[in-house]
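DM from R.C. (forwarded with permission)

"hey, sorry to bug you on a friday — could you get me a structure for this? deadline for the figure draft is monday and I only need the backbone to look sensible"
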Amino acid sequence: MNQTSYAKMPLPPSLWAATAVPAPDTPAMEGDQQADVAIVGGGFTGLSAALHLAQRGADVAVLEAAEPGWGASGRNGGQVIPGLKEDPRQIIARFGQKDGEAMVRASGAGADLVFGLIAEHGIECDAQQNGWIQAAHTQGMLGDLRKRHQDWAQRDANVAWLEPNELAQRMGDGRYKGGWIDKRGGGVQPLGYARGLARAAQDLGARVHGSTPVLSLNQTTNGWRLATANGSLTAGKVILATNGYTDGLWPKLEHTVVPVFSVQVATAPLGENIRGKVLGGGEVLSDTHRVLWYFRQDGHGRLLMGGGGSAYESGAVKVYEGLRQRIHSLLPEAGEIEFEYAWNGKVAITPDHYPHLHELAPGLLAGLGFNGRGVAMATMMGKILADRVLETAQPEFEFPNMTPRPLPLHFMRGVAVTATRAYYRFRDALDG
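My reply, with the result:
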């Protein structure tokens, strides 16, 4: 599906679509316009970049095919997770001291950046910085989690180890063998957050255009020309911020990531006697199943659970049912549980499970591939991209440039995702 198709689709139904603050006015771009910086994509990455650029006086225009937050930014689980998939020591071993340290520092600060922007700009998005828990579902997983906790603790991160009894108090039962909490993390209403970023960027002078798919991108003598259905935008610099919805606008960029449908369900508000039993302190939690499961409560006492993932939107139906069953297992005393919402959105997975920053051509940058940690990391990537565009001499955060590597046999990505998920489910079943 190309960008033009998205422009014709309304925001899909979800808990977030039903409860977010109203969207700001983002009219389609018309006529021929100019800007210092053009941003393609109105999700967390693009809106964060726009905000940070406008804050420093740049003339910036965001071109979004649908509306801000329409993609995965407005359809994820709302978990704000510091760090990357691997531990700091693993990142440094893989990328070297200089680049590795830069990645660790940037990713570790992502959650604080999110909550800082929310506070600074008065964004209404049910923000709760009460910590992210990673819990071990088997004894065998404890060793890795202890190393991860120790790694971040040595860097003076606000983290703590949780013994089984401490987890049981937060979960209402003893299903987890232990884990750790990163108190920098938390949760947001993601669509509300995206809309708040858009409004904040507009307040600083950025132009944010919805219903404006970019049809072509061509280099000119003075920069770049982005053609749309109703005009064009000429800009000295361009940021591509389309993540899981990346198409053929730039050759082969879409072949560097694998889009996967992330799936969530939400209950009706739980009774007061039930709410306190599972993450009643406002924490968010992910466990160590290979087929990831994550859950939290929203500000109205609904229990949200996400995970599974599917290469095809049609496969989400089976995942929905699996999530509902897991919620029943968490709350057996609740009896019949009413479910109000089920939804999905495409996240971008990279083969190495790292976000990628690309300088595709002079004045053309892209940041994508957040592997399910996009609330914090995409926000940080937007800030980093803004510094790159402005050629900031001493940026607060940095991230290494990576050479785009299109995946061989990318057209078979659906088969590969399905097979991998089946293998992970088998391994999880063996673990018990």
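R.C.: lifesaver. The mean pLDDT is 91.
me: no worries. The domain at 3-76+191-256+352-412 is CATH 3.50.50.60 (FAD/NAD(P)-binding domain).
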